Amino acid sequence: MTDKPAFTIVSIKHPDELRAPETRYTVNSYTHRHTGRRPKKIALKKQLAVSWTKSREDTPDESISSGGPPSVDADPSQCDTRNSAVIASPSPLTIEFTGTRRDPFNSYPIEVRGCVEGAVDFWLKEWTPAQIPGMTQLLPKPIDESPKLNCASAFLDGQPAFTGVVISRMFGLAMSNAETFQSLVALSQAIREYMLGRDVAEFISPEVLYHKGIALHTLSLRLNSQCPVDETMMLTVLNLLALDLIRFESTSFRLHLSALRQMSTQPNAFKTDLQKQIFLGYLDASKVYLQALEYSENKHHPDRKNVSVPPTMSSPIPAESSMTLPPGFRALALEGQLSLGLTSILARFSVWIELVNDSNVSKNTAMFMKLRPWVDIENQFPILERERTVNPPSTEKLVCLSLFCLACYILRRFSLSGIFHRMLADLMGSIKDFQPRDEWQVDLKIWATTLAAGIGNERPSLAYRSAPLVDSVIDSLPNPFGMAQPEYLFRQFLADEHSLKAWSACWTAGLGRKKLRLKT
């Protein structure tokens, strides 16, 4: 008696024979009998910028392998550029065919459900690396304790060491605390929904509500139990603050900001000077957040505050006070279109923009850190509040809104918040209503249009307004084809050199659409 063969041979002479029911049944039954399940999808391996996964048995301060990222309590002054090799080490995280990194060891401190894995992946690879450059501008003073890793120079020189240390520390704190991780997931998911074009200020998804609610409930239990304030508590509140800004929840923002200020006064709240300085920088920048919230609230609810109509434009600025301004703003100041306070803001802002665009800015780190763009942004809101009821919009309002959007775009702050959305929408509306009276004001309108359209194209919720804005401005000009090119106007006013070509393309595309309309 012959043994039954352990395999089955299927002879196929033509591809169409694969569709035959008998052949399909034979192949499927053989696969099911010998594997017991369907073939799994292929998983790929990829090196990540940060290796952060921990096992359940590890303590919060231990890495999963030797040579892993720095511990949560590590002193940043002891970190040098050698950490860049550690950060680039291979990660055990697998990558699905959709591109999302997953955690095969189930090391998250919360239950993995719904959007958790996608939100964590977005936070690690997209959101946080884009926000870290702005942290160097939040430091009240340069870090000089260690010449090996100066925070500003490490970022400006393009070194990944500072970025990797910050991400490893912040994510290490989240991995060691459930409510911090819940707030991180809620924030990241809200940002992802905004990037997909959803108006998160008007609609919040069940996933964001679920994780935010658990974070708030767990945090309140810890505070009611008289637990000492630690880094995880403050990081949780910081995540909730960012979520409030994205969703434009002014009442919740003020409540969380008040709690954060009380936490900062507790003893042993900070373990290193770097953490304290960054935290104080966030509190300093919160003044700008509050003023932006109040301005947007007053604009959409005029009855909340009575603002008198401002007087006529002040007298021309003396020539010596406008020498440091770009040519376009200098001409407007000499004509009396800009006040002395706004001229001073523009003078400091232009120096800061020059350093940002300078490829050798790391040589001027001390000067770069002394310039506080957040202070200049804060000083613009009294001017905006004064000009809020003026119709048509004044030159000062157009300049202030343009500076606010340009600074937030460069610093990557506010860039995904409901405040930035409303301020950029306010700028687009002011551009349409602005009525230039001379050539310099026409150039200012074209500059602001190209700036707003270029930034708006990168915002899914405002991209549909960019092209109509450019078309309306071009149609309002008597000879749009004879006007100065955007590249020239950006150098007459202010610009981000890294985005100059992309923003100028918006105006060029508008001129192309104008030619097509003239032909038809």
What does the secondary structure layout of this molecule look like, with pairings?
Elements: H1 21-35, E1 44-45, H2 83-87, E2 94-95, E3 101-102, H3 116-135, H4 151-156, H5 161-175, H6 178-195, H7 206-224, H8 231-247, H9 250-264, H10 273-300, H11 327-334, H12 340-357, H13 365-370, H14 373-386, H15 395-411, H16 418-433, H17 439-456, H18 463-476, H19 486-492, H20 500-519
Region (Disordered): 51-80
Protein name: Transcription factor domain-containing protein
Organism: Exophiala bonariae
Task: Give a structural overview.
This protein has 520 residues and is mainly alpha-helical. The protein contains 20 helices and 3 strands. The chain has helices at 21-35, 83-87, 116-135, 151-156, 161-175, 178-195, 206-224, 231-247, 250-264, 273-300, 327-334, 340-357, 365-370, 373-386, 395-411, 418-433, 439-456, 463-476, 486-492, 500-519, and strands at 44-45, 94-95, 101-102. Helix 14 (373-386) packs antiparallel against helix 15. Residues 51-80 are annotated as: Disordered.
